[in-house]
Amino acid sequence: MRTDDLINFLGSNVEPVKSGQLRNTLLASLAVGAVAALCLMLVILGAPDEAFGGEYAGLKFLGLVFTLGLVIAGTSFLLRAARPGTPGRRPLVVIGLLFFALLSAGIITIVLSHPAVWGEMLFGPQWAACLICIPLFAIAPFASFIWALRKEAPTNPAWTGAVAGLVAGALGAAAFTLHHPAGSIPFILLWYGGPIVACTLVGAILGPRLLRW
Amino acid sequence: MTISSEEPELRALMLAGLGGDEASHKSLLMKLSAYLRAYFKGQLARIGRSASDAEDLVQETLIALHTRRHTYDRSQPLTPWVYAIARYRLVDYLRRTKAAKMDVPVEEAEGVFAVDDVSAVDSGLDLTKLLAQLTPKMRQAIQFVKLDGLSVSEAAKRAGMSQSAIKVSVHRGLKALSLLVKERRLS
């Protein structure tokens, strides 16, 4: 086939492209994923006794700030990563800072508290539930992101997949914390942060396979 | 010509093409094909590969530029977007043909697209054969709209389909074609 013929072929009857199409697709997939994670949480764990407030209101708030902060930073990274040739890794720095802040707060909490309560702090009653539920809740948001990203043109599929996994994990953790707030900051670090990092790694491995175009 | 001096004009053509202007879109693809040809020939020669596949890569990239044009951010310069897609296609091609991806350096877009090349323009692709592999619905929609040059409403009338069904079929057909173009090398 001659290249001129291909150009004539591609260039006849071109449809106008709506601006903001990529942004809308990705934000819609985020909304679908968030709702799916929330519904799965309600189905598996039931309605939370106290959605807001209660004994651990402060830690629930902190858990939500951390996870939703990751969601916002990760989504802003994905919006760039889906466009070829758009540099910008600043959201990754924000993600790093969120983890660093939580790590520092966790270490300070441990240092300041009595060694006798360390075990209880790190292994609260819900740690096994976190380990199972957060990745489980993350599946639907991850699938939703991949579905959207496949329509776009990510030129770095490993990083794109990793951040999609991170945002999905963070959505899963946010849904979980609405039901069961963590008992301490080190608990958030270990049992929210850990599963989120695991989701990120899975995303990094799957990205190159799922996001080729 | 160099791509940096042509950037304002190319970007204007792209914006007009995104607005649905057929002539601008064709003119853009024509101009870009010359830069892509020079780029792929240069890169393939530099890593000691035959330049004979350069035209296939040019055509694959043109298809990608067309089917993924909604990923261009209208507030940004055009060249880095085109270069990122061309480089991705080259890396993908080298991986498919079992060569190290490390061979393709990340460079400034202006540097690699410095010159154009308007010479020979044939590839091993056979459009008729590729079209034959699409579903009848896609094939018909593409035949009417892209090859016979009918408008979407004329094509809809002739095919007895709705206009949006024609648009969807053309869109899906192009996506399917770009996949066939890539898989062809594997078979």
Radius of gyration of chain B: 17 Å
List the total number of helices of chain B.
9
**Total of domains of chain B:** 2
For the secondary structure, the number of strands of chain B is: 0
Helix content of chain A: over 70%
Ranges of chain A where pLDDT stays below 50 over 5 or more residues in a row are none
Strand proportion of chain A: under 5%
Distance between the termini of chain A: 22 Å
Greatest interface: A-B, 32 and 53 residues
Mean pLDDT of chain A: 90
* Percentage of residues assigned to helices of chain B: 55-70%
> What's the overall average pLDDT of chain B, rounded?
83
| Overall SS class of chain B | mainly alpha
Q: Sheet with the most strands of chain B?
A: none
What is the 3D shape of chain A?
elongated
* Main β sheet profile of chain A: none
Write up this protein.
Chain A is mainly α. Chain A contains eight helices and no strands. Chain A has helices at 3-11, 21-45, 57-81, 90-112, 118-122, 127-149, 157-179, 185-210. The longest helix of chain A has 26 residues, at 185-210. Chain A is elongated, with a radius of gyration of 20 Å. Chain B is mainly alpha-helical. Chain B has helices at residues 3-18, 22-46, 54-67, 79-96, 109-112, 127-132, 136-147, 152-159, 163-183. The radius of gyration of chain B is 17 Å and the shape is globular. The model of chain B has no long low-confidence stretch (mean pLDDT 83). The chains are: A mainly alpha (213), B mainly alpha (187). The A-B interface holds A 1-19, 21-22, 82-87, 152-153, 155, 212-213 and B 17-22, 25-26, 29-30, 33, 55, 58-59, 62-64, 66, 68-74, 76, 80-85, 87-88, 92, 109, 121-123, 125-127, 145-147, 149-152, 167, 170-171, 174.
